[in-house]
Amino acid sequence: MKKLFLLLFLLLTIFSFSNDSIRIVSTSQFTTEMLLAIGAEDYMIGTSFLDDEILPELQEKYKKIPVLSAGAPTKELFYSLNPTFLTGWQSIATSKNLGTIEELNENGVEVFFTKSQKTSNLDDIYEDILYFGKRLNLEENAKKVVENMKSEIEKVKVFNSGKKKVKVFAYDSQESAPFIIGGNGIGNTMIELAGGENIFKDSNFGFGTGNWEKVLDENPELILIVDYGDKSYESKIKFLKQESPILELQAVKENRFVRIPLSYISSGIKVSKGIEKISEGLREVQE
């Protein structure tokens, strides 16, 4: 019996050490918020690529983790932290940034890039959250996060049941040709679940370049504006109302604009709240 107890104690100690030794760098807001939401802050040694404000309920946890840079941290800074796990934007794993996945692995860094950043399927977001939970021995926390997201989305779906679809132009940026939310990403799925119909739903990209002619032809009832970066939400509205080719559209004249911060339309834990935000913006048109 003593030998069995000792064996169990050793196994638990090894397992605990294995988890405690995980040192995570997160290079996207959506993975940072996933990790914080499941209670993985003690494993996190650095973050980067903050698009907008962290969820209020996660801000205290976030403040305790070093922000390495606004964009990609340097290799020197990254490796000086002795990281063992990297997640975030897939573009971080290039020779110009932190190195290829093969290079990172050779240097003792485990790499996990979320499947959901290249998908239009909400289930992939849930799977990513549950993966983090399993990998970090926080499975119950991860399950609760997923269950809460599903519950929030279901309420919106029930509310919109039987209501007419609202034609939506989802504008990101650019002036000569609009950079938009297309039909092959999570943004399009969110618009549909919120009760809208993306006028660029037939495009084969998540974000990409559209054209003003189609916006004029489709005559959207509402304009969803992605808010982030150097150009403010207000400046984008000013352009649409004063200089853009669509300034005569009814939706523009009647100020039917809805603001959506970038992190609320990225593949993370905010998608349920993002769907709620879009749905709230559509209600005036639906009614």
Keywords:
Rossmann fold, disordered N terminus, five-stranded parallel sheet, single chain, 287 residues, alpha/beta, 12 helices
Q: Could you explain the architecture of this structure?
A:
44% of the residues lie in helices and 16% in strands. The longest helix is centred in the middle third of the chain and has 22 residues. The strands form 2 sheets. Strands 6, 7, 8, 9, 10 and 11 form a 6-stranded mixed β-sheet that branches. It has a 5-stranded parallel β-sheet with strand order 3-2-1-4-5. The radius of gyration is 21 Å and the shape is globular. Helix 6 packs antiparallel against helix 7 and helix 7 runs parallel beside helix 12. It has 2 domains: 112 residues, Rossmann fold, CATH 3.40.50; 128 residues, Nitrogenase molybdenum iron protein domain (Rossmann fold). Helix 3 links the parallel strand 2 and strand 3. It is built from 12 helices and 11 strands. The N terminus is likely disordered. It has 287 residues and is an alpha/beta fold.
Helix content, binned percent? 40-55%
Query: What structural category do the secondary elements indicate?
Result: alpha/beta
CATH superfamily of the largest domain: Nitrogenase molybdenum iron protein domain
Q: Which regions contain 5 or more consecutive residues with pLDDT less than 50? A: 1-18
Number of strands: 11
Share of residues in strands? 15-25%
CATH topology of the largest domain: Rossmann fold
Largest sheet: 6 strands, mixed
Order of helices and strands: HEHEHEHEHEHHEEHEEHEHHEH
How many structural domains are formed by the residues?
A: 2
**Principal-axis shape:** globular
What is the CATH-assigned architecture of the largest domain? 3-Layer(aba) Sandwich
Which class of the largest domain in CATH terms? Answer: Alpha Beta
What gyration radius follows from the Cα positions, in whole Å? Answer: 21 Å
Distance between the termini: 71 Å
In DSSP terms, counting alpha (H) and pi (I) runs of 4 or more, how many helices? 12
If you average the pLDDT, what whole number results? 92
